[in-house]
Amino acid sequence: MVGLAVVVALAVRTGPSAATWAAAIAAVIACLPPRWSPEPADEPGGSAAEDLRSPRLDPWVIARSVVIVTCCVVLGGWRTADAWSGLRPDVVGPFDGWALVIDDPQPYAGSTRVIVELDGERFESWHRGRAARLRAGSWRAGEWVRVVGERNELDAERSERVAWQHVVGDFELDWASDVLTGRPIDRASNRVRAAIERGGATLPGDDGALFRGLVVGDDRDQPPEMIGRFRASGLSHLTAVSGQNVSFVLAAAGPLLVRLRPWWRWFVTLGLIAWFVSLTRFEPSIVRAGVMAGLSATGFVLGRERTPLRLVGWAVIGLLLADPLIGWSVGFWLSVGATAGVVTVGPWLGERLGSLGPLAMPVGVTLGAQVGVVVPLVWVFGSLPLVSVPANLLAVPVAGFVMLYGLPAGLFAGAVAESAPWLASAVMLPCRFGVRWVDTVAVVAARLEPGGAVSWCGWAVLVVAIGLIAARNRGRHGSPSADR
């Protein structure tokens, strides 16, 4: 399954290239375990035991593996070509009508970016000037806005950067007026986010913006300084919603879910996952986690195998074939890499770091996540913060508490913020301490991060130290079989 996921990923990113076919051949070989079957003895003295030791590969297994892998390559390449061909606007020029707001407005230095859908195609619209930014900043995903403007094509570089959002062009807004609410699910999501925003407003300074980022991925009001220090400390996955939020939502609903019959539990679980994915605006990391959680719930109700690495493989294959452009999202690959590292390298290291005592598994999981994201991090950002290991050990448990407690607390605080502000502040007090702790860890870690060659030397020392500890503890642990 993992091999097929790699083949599909390469087919989506590079088409039927040499690397794709090399991975396909490797996947076929990996899918061909020797089949032990009795062979007729050539000599009268041959024993049955010797015959049973004769290996033979089943030709049907070979043919099936070749067909499956080839179909993955062809289907992945075809789906990608089809998706890229649809990234050009069918019509350019003047537009006068209703625009559907796809995502919440994103503020930048001196401008605000909004993705809108015009006649079934997505365009990005940039709003500059105080009045224009205030007007666009009040829109919410799912709303309809009456607009007049001009549709234009994007240059090749910009088109590739926003491809994962299915944006086909640029929309220059000349005039906007009426705003209508959207579908019931959009209205419900906007009400929940508005309540959490009111609850987060009870926190001082920028803590409210970080709180909303931790709980529902609303990072619009996070200042550049906050984003910079979280990135420098290796905690950037906390400034916006990540896949672990899905786990916390399901954990919070666990007492209710365990009381339901299996099929009702499955139905409610899928509904809860779909609601949270919609609430977080279909962020790639959340979509990946939601698909994995849905597959796990389905496997449970059907009594099928649900190993984590297999779920990662199925999720990657399904998402890339359904939406190949998601393969151009850095957040998607960071999420996939971190998850794969946590479920494979993390437990493996944790078992071999027994001398660290209760820190063995947390350190192993943290290092596993870092191993999983090293390629996209270095490729895109050119760095791998050395302080990310201690920073994650200190910040992630507290951030997890904020994610778990913050959603119901934020909803309650938002509901009573106007009538009983003192009660809202009291309910949000644990979140205030938690958010402040996470931000303080990011501040200190960003200051301690050496950067440059010193950081890479530090990683080399850390790898050697982990290797020595693992070698010292060799043989003191079990040897779980790998999931293929």
Low-confidence parts, pLDDT < 50 over ≥5 residues? 35-39, 48-52, 479-484
- How far apart lie the N and C ends? 7 Å
Number of strands: 8
Q: What count of domains describes the coordinates?
A: 3
Radius of gyration: 26 Å
Please list the strands of the largest sheet in the order they lie side by side. Answer: 3-5-6-8-7
Helix share, percent? 55-70%
Q: Please count the helical segments.
A: 22
Beta-strand percentage range:
5-15%
Based on secondary structure, the structural category is alpha+beta
Helix-strand sequence: HHEHEHEEEEHEHEHHHHHHHHHHHHHHHH
Main β-sheet: number of strands, strand sense, barrel status?
5 strands, mixed, barrel
Average per-residue pLDDT, rounded, comes to 85
Q: Tell me, briefly, the overall form.
A: globular
Question: What labels would you give this structure?
Answer:
single chain, 484 residues, OB fold (Dihydrolipoamide Acetyltransferase, E2P), two-stranded antiparallel sheet, 22 helices, disordered C terminus
Topology:
Elements (H helix, E strand, L loop, with lengths): L1 H13 L3 H13 L4 E2 L11 H5 L2 E2 L2 H27 L7 E9 L4 E3 L2 E8 L2 E8 L1 H8 L6 E10 L2 H6 L5 E14 L3 H17 L6 H10 L7 H9 L3 H4 L4 H9 L1 H4 L4 H18 L4 H19 L5 H15 L7 H14 L1 H8 L7 H22 L6 H29 L4 H7 L1 H20 L3 H21 L12
Parallel strand pairs: 6-8
Antiparallel strand pairs: 1-2, 3-5, 3-7, 4-5, 5-6, 7-8
Helix pairs in contact: 1-2, 1-4, 1-15, 2-4, 7-8, 7-19, 8-19, 8-21, 9-21, 11-14, 11-19, 13-14, 14-15, 14-16, 15-16, 16-18, 17-18, 18-19, 19-20, 19-21
Protein name: Competence protein ComEC
InterPro entries: ComEC_N (IPR004477), Competence_DNA_uptake (IPR052159)
Subcellular location: Cell membrane
